[in-house]
Amino acid sequence: MSLWRWYCSLLKPPSEKAMQRWQKMKARGKKGFVWRFGVLGWGGLMFVAMTSTELVHRSPLSRSATDYAFDILLNLLIWPIAGYFFGSHMWGFYETYFSDENMHRPTR
User: Fold this and answer.
1) By the 8 A CB rule, do 102 and 13 touch?
2) Confidence check: pLDDT of 12 > 60
């Protein structure tokens, strides 16, 4: 049993409304989902959060503009890549969660 299948077995089966929302997202394709929810959504949010946190918590007196630019570029590299993997894994989770096998299992 895969980790996603085991985790989905612990959750309630999805509602009909949630199933319809997933079908709409699925119709747009995996690539669009990963970019929209992974790279731009989660990766973008993490980029903004982590960049602002680093800029606020480090002393501005001891840093040059190059240090700030390096931090921003590093975060701009890391978080979209992490967002891509997050989106890919979420696609896999939703595929398992909304699968026919999970829809027709008995509820606890």
Assistant:
1) yes
2) yes
pLDDT at 102 over 70: no
Answer whether 43's CB lies under 8 Å from 83's CB. yes
Helix axes 16-28 and 65-97, enclosed angle (nearest 10): 120
Longest CA–CA span in the chain (Å) reads 62
The reported pLDDT for the residue numbered 32 is: 95
- Using DSSP, state whether 62 is helix, strand or coil: coil
Q: Are 46 and 90 in contact (CB under 8 A)?
A: no
Q: Which of 96, 89, 80, 76 is nearest to 14 (CA)?
A: 96
Buried b (16+ CB within 10 A) or exposed e, 83-101: bbebbeebbeebebbbeee
Q: What is the pTM of this model?
A: 0.80
